[in-house]
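DM from R.C. (forwarded with permission)

"hey, sorry to bug you on a friday — could you get me a structure for this? deadline for the figure draft is monday and I only need the backbone to look sensible"
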Amino acid sequence: MTATLLKEASPPTVTPAGRRRRARRRGRIVAVAFVLPALLLLGALVVYPVLFSVGRSFFDASGTRFVGGDNYTEMFRDPATIKAVRNTAIWVVVAPTLLTGLGLVLAVLVEKVRWATAFKLLLFMPMAVSFLAAGIIFRLAYDEDPDKGVLNAAVVSVHDAFSGTSAYPAARAREGQGLTKAADGSYGTTAPTKPGHTVGLGLVGVLPADLPQGARPAYSAARRTAASDELRGVVYLDFTRGGGGEQGRADRNESGLPGMRVESLRDGHTVASATTAADGSFRFQDLGPGSYTVRLPASNFAPPYEGVSWLGPALVTPAVIGAYLWIWTGFAMVLIGAGLAALPRDALEAARMDGANEWQIFRRITVPLLAPVLTVVFVTLVINVMKVFDLVYIIAPGPVQEDATVLATQMWLVSFGGGNNQGLGSALGVLLLLLVIPAMVFNVRRFRGSQR
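My reply, with the result:
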């Protein structure tokens, strides 16, 4: 009897399979407990906004009236949205391609540099700069004023070194003083002149402080006598500091304008040319008899070269892409360099022993072996450029903002930047999501394939 009771009161025997099931159940509970906060954050910050945006895209600007697919229809009728889609397509094609190519070339070259680590660090440093700061930096670098924009300062310096620049961009002739302005901006004598005469060409609009160094008074040159077969003259600043003097005549304290190009025309054709001396004098020798016109070509009054309008409608998108390349080239180089370090060196050495040069090794061995890494880098950059916002919004000035806009900036402008139409803005957000999803799926599959 007692043995029977003890047998009935003893706990049931747990089999090894039961213990494993309990352990797995306990492991699932612990895993869910750890993952639950992340799932809650993911739902609150990603899933809910996506679902809310999808629903909001079917309502009007106020969010009270259901309009169905009208926002999506209007989206593709709006010229600004069409331009944003076009610019986004340019970004997707150009930026990832250039970055992947630059990253590949730099990764291969860095392997041959003695200070490879320092070089990589130098190229990767822009990644530490925020897009806001980078946008401000490049907004200043692209400034059209050469005194502010470093790029235009370089362009203007190179241009002026080869082409030169006018020393008198603001100079002009007084009305009724013997010079007439032509349609091309040049000045010519109103009355014809003949050899044996001396002509005075007075100009104003030049500050005495802006006169070239070494300029001398024009008084003596204006009173020189010309030979019978030559035509003399003087180009001078018809302005006396402190007032006084006689208009249309070189006075004692009035300076000549050196470096001015002067031409002599007969029957509308240039027969001689000269450059004024330090006192503004010039002369044309061996002229035949007849009447001549003295002309100051428009090149003397050309405004100084101001460089390139980097942030104009035509170049604003390439300019912003250039800033993006500066930031992300180091990222592409480091990722491709990691893949390059994992390449089998025996294949490269075997190719060199077979007589292949470095270009053949790069094209036929290095690039094919790096194809998986290059694909991942390219697709990652495609996803990134589809969402670019900061650089476009900060670098592009207000007047050309529409010329540089992409889907992300257009979505913000329509929703919050003055459009106040969050229904249309949500539709743009859904379109952007649909464009990003295929690239994300492709990248995830590539990662899974590489892990297997």
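R.C.: lifesaver. Residues 36 and 93 are 39 Å apart (CA to CA).
me: no worries. Residues 78-154+310-420 form a domain with the MetI-like fold fold (CATH 1.10.3720.10).
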